[in-house]
Automatic annotation (TrEMBL):
Residues 9-227 form the BURP domain. The lineage of its organism: Eukaryota, Viridiplantae, Streptophyta, Embryophyta, Tracheophyta. Signal peptide: none annotated. Transmembrane segments: none annotated. This is BURP domain protein RD22-like. It comes from the Eukaryota. Pfam families: BURP (PF03181).
Length: 229
């Protein structure tokens, strides 16, 4: 029991270092979050109370992004605070509203011996530029992974999903101005059950299941993979 607690403490510190280095959002401990107005646990029906709690204009850009986050977590039966949905071919989806709940979801699916990775730039740059993939592409983990995408909200909300057909890589990117980014890329090996209207198929001009679909993770997103000693 003590060893389990120590592992969780180590992973939690690692996770804090990753997300706090890439995002200025407020990361509330689960115990604090659950003491807030009960309306925060509800979603669409009480969204106005959420806006009031954080003094956000519902028609502002931030307000619209918050509503989009709530809709995403509700549209397929995914709810905050522990209710999950089984997706295609064993995929499990979960909306985590604290670092602790994200960590609990990842360890419950992949075990305690985990590695947490995220995309991190060596320095901030305001300009849009082209990046070149440098040498040193490295595969991490096997096909099992939990990917948690940071969503727009006044406090931490991550849209997480566990997959068994995802291959992850760490990639060094070099910008035209010399900026370096240590990026995380994921490749979805099986897209046969994806929505045919998915943006990836439109951009790549391919059909579901015909080719793997790969993309980089944004800063603030977290990839969890089993760690091999």
């Amino acid at each position: 029991m003590q060893k389990h607690a120590c592992v969780h403490a180590y992973l939690y510190e690692l996770l804090q270092a990753i997300v706090l280095a890439t995002d200025a959002a407020i990361y509330l401990h689960l115990a604090i979050l659950q003491c807030l107005n009960p309306s925060l646990i509800s979603l669409t029906l009480l969204v106005d109370d959420i806006f009031k709690e954080f003094s956000i204009n519902s028609k502002s850009e931030d307000g619209e992004m918050m509503k989009k986050t709530i809709e995403e977590c509700e549209k397929e039966g995914i709810l905050f605070f522990g209710q999950e949905e089984v997706g295609i071919k064993g995929e499990e989806k979960y909306c985590a509203t604290s670092l602790e709940s994200m960590l609990d979801f990842a360890t419950s699916r992949l075990g305690n011996n985990l590695e947490a990775l995220s995309t991190q730039a060596q320095q901030e740059t305001a300009r849009t530029q082209e990046y070149t993939v440098a040498r040193g592409v490295k595969r991490v983990g096997e096909r099992k992974a939990v990917v948690c995408h940071k969503r727009k909200f006044p406090y931490a909300v991550f849209y997480c999903h566990k997959t068994e057909t995802t291959v992850a890589y760490t990639v060094l990117l070099e910008g035209a101005d010399g900026t370096r980014v240590k990026a995380v890329a994921v490749c979805h090996a099986d897209t046969s059950e994806w929505n045919p209207e998915h943006l990836a198929f439109q951009v790549l001009n391919v059909k579901p299941g015909s080719v793997p679909v790969c993309h980089f993770l944004s800063e603030g997103d977290v990839l969890w993979v089993p760690k091999h000693n």
